[in-house]
Specification:
single chain, 222 residues, alpha+beta, Porin, disordered N terminus, signal, Outer membrane protein with beta-barrel domain
């Protein structure tokens, strides 16, 4: 082969090899940098049942597989604040996670609402719709009732799937169960005697039971 032709070809191949090698190094560095820069802090908002009603939340990684979280919002039982710990089997912040936390609901005083009643107690009402004295049963009908909803706490057990959006954000879909830590849920302050239907409704609205929640969280640069 002509040496005048061989030299340019060798030069071109060498340059091409060095270019490809450099590109591979840059790509590897970019992938490593992207992986190392996964967000450790998430901020977001969402809604749910026995989660935090409608509110905002924050999550902070404390190790490769564990994060602490806190949420606050408005629920059917007043203001609710939650804190807990999440474990990620694989990638911190994304994929499946298992969480355990505790929630505190503030309750509400002097809540006026319409409920089905079966009588009227001529005096101070009992706790949880029971007790009282000197009442005469009357026909069941809807009346304006005044309730005191007591502050209330639950322990929460959750499974969540953290669906990655882009490289830094996520949708979080949660399900689980919350265990009540308090027995006295409410007081009928207006003295009405509630029907079983009304009591079941109040107990349904109270914290505790099945948890369903969804939220969107944005990864924050560290």
């Amino acid at each position: 082969m002509n040496s005048k032709f061989l030299f340019p070809c060798t030069t071109v191949l060498t340059i091409l090899y060095l270019t490809l090698f450099s590109f591979q190094n840059v790509s590897a560095q970019e992938n490593s940098t992207t992986k190392s820069k996964l967000p450790e802090t998430f901020l977001g908002a969402g809604f749910g049942i026995n989660d935090y009603g409608i509110g905002v939340g924050m999550e902070q990684a404390v190790s490769n597989n564990f994060s602490v979280y806190g949420t606050g919002g408005l629920s059917t039982w007043g203001l609710r604040a939650t804190g807990g710990l999440s474990w990620y089997p694989k990638e911190s912040g994304f994929g499946s996670s298992i969480s355990m936390g505790i929630s505190f609901s503030s309750g509400m005083e002097e809540l006026e609402t319409t409920l089905e009643t079966s009588g009227y107690i001529s005096g101070y009402g009992g706790y949880g719709g029971y007790g009282g004295y000197g009442y005469q049963p009357i026909e069941e009908n809807d009346k304006e009732v005044t309730l005191d909803l007591f502050a209330y706490s639950t322990i929460n057990l959750l499974y969540s799937y953290n669906l990655k959006v882009g490289t830094r954000s996520k949708f979080v879909f949660s399900g689980g169960f919350s265990i009540p830590l308090d027995d006295n849920v409410y007081r009928v302050k207006s003295g009405h005697l509630l029907t079983n239907k009304s009591k079941r409704f109040i107990n349904f609205m109270a914290p505790g039971g099945i948890i369903i929640g969804v939220k969107f969280m944005l990864g924050i640069d560290n």
